[in-house]
Amino acid sequence: MENKDYNVLLYYCYAQIDDPEAYREEHHLFCIENKIRGRIIISPEGLNGTVSGLKEDCEKYMAYVHADPRFAKTEFKVDAHDQHTFAKIHVRVKSEIVHSSLRHIDPNVKTGKHLEPEDFRKLKDEEDVVILDVRSNYEHELGRFKNAITLDIDNFRDFPEKVKELEHLKGKKVLTYCTGGIKCEKASAFLLEQGFQDVYQLHGGIIKYGMEAGGEDFEGKCYVFDNRIAVDVNKVNPTVISTCHVCGTECDRMVNCANPTCNAHLPICEKCGWEMEGACSVECKENPEKRPYDGTGYYQKNTNGYNPYKGLFRRQDKEKIKQTIHEQKDSRVGADH
């Protein structure tokens, strides 16, 4: 039986942060000291993160977030795993917790009605209902709800422009969904702003729906932003809807192209993955910058000059922090092998 001593946490919280830079340093230090890895965004409008760690370390992390009154309402989606799903910890300050063209929208003021997974399951097949996927192409091509409307977008910031194509649905109940719920907070609010009257969102997204409603009628796999790349959701009536980009066979195995200048997110079967050395085309396979393929199709993102230890030495206990850093480096070296 597989030993799942680790947790993967997916979460977000819209809440005002007056000094994001100062909170970034505090938050990052906590992650370092408690062996939490992952990607966390901190902005004036809140938090957004996916992290991994031993179960007991993740419990400490959730308690730490909830202890801050600003983030007491944060809901964590918790998944068991057999190892870390990240190699490092990155805590960055950005202008938004999810990149959009909707900075004027505050989901704490206006957003669609939240539907719990079981309520979403019961409502989704009613005659006057449409299901709207607000994610990007590479995500919904791998997996989506049966009969869902998908938009031809490469990034969530393109969503507002595409809403113009949905004018004919204004008389319907619109059920929006995304991976963990964060995009729907602003997407559903924008739909209301554009004159849609009856707008809902799947609370907790696809991930929570899989955990609490069995994933019924979610076809394919759900793309996730860690080294798992794609996860199973449907335990009731699973199916595969994607095909291998190279050979066209049925395939739900997601790969990031080994050519970093391409880095396309595509389904590629295991056989073609090895034959193409993780590349999506002959041109990408022959690219001199091509990354070594290890069979997973996942590559650690470029740090772009990010210093994970910035600000740590302001504390009095410098020696303790140095020791923590050395231990994490040693554990990373072991994980990389």
Question: Your description of this structure?
Answer:
- Keywords: Oxidoreductase, tRNA processing.
- Its EC number is 1.14.-.-.
- Residues 125-218 form the Rhodanese domain.
- InterPro entries: Rhodanese-like_dom, Rhodanese-like_dom_sf, Rhodanese_C, TrhO, TRHO_N.
- There is one protein chain.
- Helices cover 27% and strands 20% of the residues.
- The strands form five sheets. It has a five-stranded mixed beta sheet with strand order 4-1-3-2-5. The protein has a four-stranded parallel beta sheet with strand order 6-10-9-7. A two-stranded antiparallel ribbon has the order 8-11.
- The protein is an alpha/beta fold.
- The protein is globular and about 60 Å long.
Provide the structure class.
alpha/beta
Shape type? globular
Q: Using only CA atoms, what is the Rg?
A: 21 Å
Mean pLDDT: 92
CATH architecture of the largest domain: 2-Layer Sandwich
Which strand order spans the largest sheet, edge to edge or round the barrel?
4-1-3-2-5
CATH class category name of the largest domain: Alpha Beta
As a percent range, the share of helical residues equals 25-40%
Q: According to CATH, what is the topology of the largest domain?
A: Alpha-Beta Plaits
Count all strands and give the number: 15
Report the uncertain regions: none
Query: Strand portion, in percent?
Result: 15-25%
The SSE order reads EHEEHEEEHEHEHEHEHEEEEEHHH
The first-to-last residue Cα distance is 24 Å
- Helical element count? 10
Largest sheet: 5 strands, mixed
Provide the number of structural domains.
3
EC number: 1.14.-.-
Pfam families: Rhodanese (PF00581), Rhodanese_C (PF12368), UPF0176_N (PF17773)
Enzyme class: oxidoreductase
Domain Rhodanese: 125-218
